[in-house]
Amino acid sequence: xxxxxxxxxxxxxxxxxxxxxxxxxxxxxxxxxxxxxxxxxxxxxxxxxxxxxxxxxxxxxxxxxxxxxxxxxxxxxxxxxxxxxxxxxxxxxxxxxxxxxxxxxxxxxxxxxxxxxxxxxxxxxxxxxxxxxxxxxxxxxxxxxxxxxxxxxxxxxxxxxxxxxxxxxxxxxxxxxxxxxxxxxxxxxxxxxxxxxxxxxxxxxxxxxxxxxxxxxxxxxxxxxxxxxxxxxxxxxxxxxxxxxxxxxxxxxxxxxxxxxxxxxxxxxxxxxxxxxxxxxxxxxxxxxxxxxxxxxxxxxxxxxx
Length: 306
What we know:
Elements: H1 3-20, H2 22-32, E1 41-44, E2 50-54, H3 57-68, H4 77-101, H5 115-126, H6 129-166, H7 174-185, H8 194-219, H9 226-240, H10 242-253, H11 272-281, E3 294-295
Antiparallel strand pairs: 1-2, 2-3
Helix pairs in contact: 1-4, 2-3, 4-6, 6-7, 6-8, 8-9, 8-10, 10-11
């Protein structure tokens, strides 16, 4: 299999997974925007403490389907697919250019049975610190390029999904939405929320790569555990940097004219750090991180009799 064919098959696979999981992604986006249409109910946590329980993601999906029908669960799928495809293509192209221009290597034509050898060669290269540093720089560069290239479509996707909150029809297609954003905010409108998104993904990448390299090299040298270590560390780093995703989603709709992005639903944020500070004060930086067990963690008013 050629590298081009491998890249496209990977992109197609990602699109298929994203399509199947889109109802969950839609629900997660709405939760990140702070939309909770179903009132919390008194319950207890796993440790027996009293709490206010919010509906699970699957109950939320049922609410969306009841209101908008089955196809309402795929609101924003079009621009999301565009973002996924462009991100994958940009990552692949940036990686190829980095290999040729920076590492000084020529792309090798591989036969269909050489994938295992290439994987072993890449692992051997990463075992040295210089190889690890070069691979990390390559991934940082490719990730940065892919996020910048896909951000306009990401903004359109988030705003299209965010219309569920106010039932608007402002963003109805990729080209019409792009025209609307450009008319309102110019080119800058296409990159709202890009800074926290970029920082979050790069921090997750650096953290996962560094910890995985350190543990695999100095703690557990057995290559059999390498894949498990990468998976566990990747999950941990994604969890730690999750607040950046929440802030990026909020900034993508802030000041857009949608009900989801203006008072009283959401303050008008000056910048992403202002958004972070506000969400942090209200303990909302992790909203949407849990799928099943969700609890209300916002401000609480305590009424005392006089």
